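Dear colleague,

Following up on Tuesday's group meeting, I ran the structure prediction for the two-component complex that the binding team flagged. I've pasted the input sequences exactly as they went in, so you can double-check that nothing got truncated or mislabelled along the way. The structure tokens for the whole assembly follow below. Feel free to forward this to whoever is handling the docking comparison.

Inputs:
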Amino acid sequence: MKLLSMTEIQPWWLRLVVLLVLSIPAFSGYPFDQVVLGLNEAFHINKDDAGLVVLAIPRLMYMALLWLVIFSSTGASKFQSYAMGATLLGLTTVIIGASVRKLLPFLSGGATEEEISLRMVMLFLNIITLIPFSLLAVNSFSVKNLLTKLTRLEGKYVELGFHLALALRVVQHAGEVVFSLHEIWREQHPSKFLPRHKPDWGSNWYSKINVLAWICHVALSWVHATMMYTFEPIPLMVSEIERISDSRE
Amino acid sequence: MAKATEQWTFAKTGIVAALIALAAITTMTIRIPIPATTGYFNIGDVFVIFAALWLGPRAGFLVGALGPTIADAIGFPVFVPATMITKGLEGLIVGLIAMNAKPGTMWLRVVAALTGALTIVTGYFVFEAFIYPALGESIPAFAITDIGAALIETVPNFIQGLIGAIGGLALWKAVSGYEKNNSS
């Protein structure tokens, strides 16, 4: 069920403005610092003593706002898929980041465990907020409508418009491929999702510690599948745009 | 193989857009944060180098300047200028060197890919050691690195560049073999 679809915001430039305004905190940091200062004053916390919870509150509020926008625009099913994919990516990234701090301390550049923990929590919140939002942003613009408008226009930039329409369609498709792959692998290839589903899991003493080989295999399979499914429909998309572009001339 | 002087077709736009998306996706999905600089190690360069070797300098520049930059915008926005310029240059330089290679030959393409890897190391070092600290004096968001942190990051950046070069060459070899088989 969609409550308010982003595509219903008309004209298209107003939609773009709404998306840009929503993305301002992610890129500028405003008003995160102001919220933290307000919380510090309200609860009489010294600025230097502001803990993880206080620093995370504005980002959690921002995440809640964007998730609400995404949920109301895409519906529960797609939102679930976006949130699951983003959480998986976010968790993988920050767990690896924390492990790097432990295994290769020289890469931490003298930062304390607390500082790195804080960075990783903020990074996780950023990832789970912005990946679903960027997918929403890319899918908020209809290639079909753009092509319809382009066929009515004349001038030297119309050709460029067709190229941009094709690029947008390909990027929208690539985004859908990645998140569909997560679901397909979870349902149909669980051994590529969790090592404990491997057929040889527990069959010999080294099968459980041979996770590195599994990670390499899964990473390669994932890159291979993503490439294959991303490139698959491109000839069809190209011939469609070529046909529409030629029909104008 | 395509040359920079060839006409830009819809097919090329489709492939370049797919490579931009793949560079962004692989940069986002397989990333290892480096606490010293708040940057991260990734394998997105595979597609930047592949695009430059396969489609030439213009495509290499577009994939390098846009794909990894989109990924940086999600989680590491402060690195957007450094990535856009460094990786854009990486794709451009690899493409410019590789376009002089004879069809099917490997060695000049290996030189091109390795030059791309060195471009990453040099580019990020210049940004993290000199440009960001200088910008950080007026814009606090950029005050995240210094020459020491930049030196630390040359090691993972070199490994990242090397993986990008090997992966990019492997993909180019696969595609050029496929094109050769289908044209004969």
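Residues 147-183 of chain B form the longest helix (37 residues).

Cheers,
M.
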